[in-house]
Design goal:
Pathway: Cofactor biosynthesis; adenosylcobalamin biosynthesis
CATH architecture of the largest domain: 3-Layer(aba) Sandwich
Radius of gyration: 24 Å
GO biological process, one term: cobalamin biosynthetic process
GO molecular function: ABC-type vitamin B12 transporter activity; catalytic activity
Keywords: Cobalamin biosynthesis, Glutamine amidotransferase
Structural class: alpha/beta
Helix content: 25-40%
Number of helices: 15
Function: Catalyzes amidations at positions B, D, E, and G on adenosylcobyrinic A,C-diamide. NH(2) groups are provided by glutamine, and one molecule of ATP is hydrogenolyzed for each amidation.
Distance between the termini: 64 Å
Number of strands: 27
Oligomer: single chain
Length: 513
């Protein structure tokens, strides 16, 4: 294969399966001996990761790099947007924060960002046989097309063939695929080479007529139908994933089950921290938003947040703050991670992220927090419960500890634990020791499994997705797109106009209103 081949995986919506398909293609290509890298030009996500050289990128791109068998790099996600509210986001450029902007201010940065995006992609293509690019949201967001960096704007600038993924589990997949194509301008349509249907469960023979009609209407084939596979739990970048199977679990049964409630704060970040718990046999993980849902929990987790002070206010408004405080004072386990750790402090001084000044925390740990403009990015390591721990950290808030017992980089007071380290629970020995401690404090007979290796489960999931690509996609067609680009002469699909109510004969059985 000629070095520098590339394609763009676009989607009809957010959470259509772009990230998973990109990871699967990366792993499948790597199996063929192809040196492949992932790429997402612009990613809006609160799930991020730190590379070995201290750059912050989207967590999904980090996982895709693992799938490809290459070292994750800031080049793979040159622009990361981290929303702190409905209107403002932090711009992370090549792994470092450079500005806080609202939606209108962001436009002033577009030309600079476009240059970085195209340079990053060019550098990856020069160093690899193939780059699999992932789009963002939908390419049919026509209100955003003019300044687009991640979808058809990227495809046009870099001459990338495009495949569009649709999630059949949502319903209306044929309308979504056809409508996405039809809303694109002709020069954009010329790069769309085919479709992929994701999350199919049903009889293939019932789907076949629809595939044939879609091909007849658009002049483009469906390159594959990927079946539904529950339980993959690959790193997500959108909190929409919490509405799916990741958030669901069987009801708890007996004292041998450990029940974990993760508070779904509005600006939840790095919720992948608890994925390792969902893989532990006998642990039931639920995402919760009301005090009543905490009642039977053996462990409450306050996760990371991009808006610590605002999410703390939300806890108070919902009555969750009182419920968490009451259970902690009863000696029932609570774990705060990063932003959640900060919420457990006595006071939070924030003149930077929220501008709220000094506000009271929950007061469950002997700590104080101060926010500043400098962002801490790192890959720390240490020990806890006699077990080695490797983690990563991403935060503006600095936690000062004044008492309690050591817990990773934070502390423990009674059954309340706090740390700024993300990913600690992915360390198998530490996770088992922590869960055993929690179970003892909660009065459970739960014993953590001794044979769960989280890293191996992630590798198994990536292999499963690659197997699905191999078995259910037209891989020869994918290879042809990588070698030669989009076929010439693809037809333009005009958008459907409103019906001509004047010239159409009126049905005499339908009354005129």
């Amino acid at each position: 294969m000629t070095r520098g081949g590339a394609l763009l995986v676009a989607g009809t919506t957010s959470d259509a399966g772009k990230s998973v398909l990109t990871a699967g293609l990366c792993r499948w290509l790597a199996r063929q001996g192809v040196r492949v890298a992932p790429f997402k030009a612009q990613n809006m996500s609160l799930n991020s990761m730190v590379t070995a050289d201290g750059a912050e990128i989207g967590r999904a791109q980090y996982t895709q790099a693992l799938a490809a068998g290459v070292e994750p790099s800031a080049l793979m996600n040159p622009v990361l947007l981290k929303p702190g509210s409905d209107r403002r986001s932090q711009i992370v450029l090549l792994g470092r924060p450079v500005a806080e902007v609202d939606a209108l201010e962001y436009g002033a940065h577009k030309e600079r960002l476009r240059e970085v995006v195209l340079d990053s992609l060019a550098e990856l293509r020069a160093a690899h046989d193939v780059v699999v690019c992932e789009g963002a949201g939908s390419p049919a967001e026509i209100n955003l097309r003019r300044g687009d960096l991640a979808n058809m704007g990227l495809a046009r600038a870099a001459d990338l063939p495009v495949i569009i993924v649709g999630d059949i589990d949502r319903g209306g997949v044929f309308a979504s695929l056809f409508g996405t194509l039809a809303l694109l301008e002709p020069a954009d349509q010329a790069l769309v080479a085919g479709f992929v249907i994701n999350k199919f469960r049903g009889a293939a023979e019932l789907l076949a007529p629809g595939l044939a009609q879609l091909a007849a209407l658009t002049g483009r084939p469906t390159l594959g139908v990927l079946p539904w596979r529950p339980g993959l739990n690959l790193d997500a970048e959108d909190s929409l994933a919490l509405d799916g199977p990741r958030a669901q679990a069987a009801p708890p049964v007996g004292r041998e089950t450990l029940r974990v409630a993760v508070v779904r704060v509005p600006r939840i970040s790095n919720f992948t921290d608890v994925d390792a718990l969902t893989c532990e046999p006998g642990v039931v993980v639920r995402y919760v938003t009301t005090p009543g849902e905490l009642a039977d929990a053996d462990l409450v987790v306050l996760p990371g947040s991009r808006a610590t002070v605002a999410d703390l206010a939300w806890l108070r408004e919902r009555g969750l703050a009182d419920a968490i405080t009451a259970r902690a004072r009863e000696g029932r386990p609570v774990l705060g991670i990063c932003g959640g750790h900060q919420m457990l402090a006595r006071t939070i001084e924030d003149a930077y992220e929220s501008g709220a000044g000094t506000v009271p925390g929950l007061g469950l740990l002997p700590t104080t927090v101060r926010f500043g403009p400098e962002k801490t990015l790192g890959r720390p390591s240490g020990t806890a419960y006699g077990q080695p721990v490797r983690a990563y950290e991403i935060h503006h808030g600095i936690v000062a500890v004044d008492g309690g017992e050591p817990f990773l980089d934070g502390c423990r007071a009674g059954a309340t634990y706090g740390t700024t380290w993300h990913g600690a629970l992915e360390n198998d020995g530490f996770r088992r020791a922590f869960l055993a401690d929690v179970a003892a404090r909660a009065g459970r007979d739960f014993t953590p499994a001794s044979d769960v290796v989280f890293a191996a489960l992630r590798e198994q999931a990536l292999d499963t997705v690659a197997d699905l690509v191999d078995e259910h996609l037209d891989t020869a067609a994918i290879m042809a797109l990588l070698e030669h680009g989009a076929p010439a002469g693809l037809p333009v699909v005009p958008p459907a106009g409103p019906p001509d109510l004047v010239s159409r004969p009126r049905d005499p059985d339908v009354p005129v209103r």
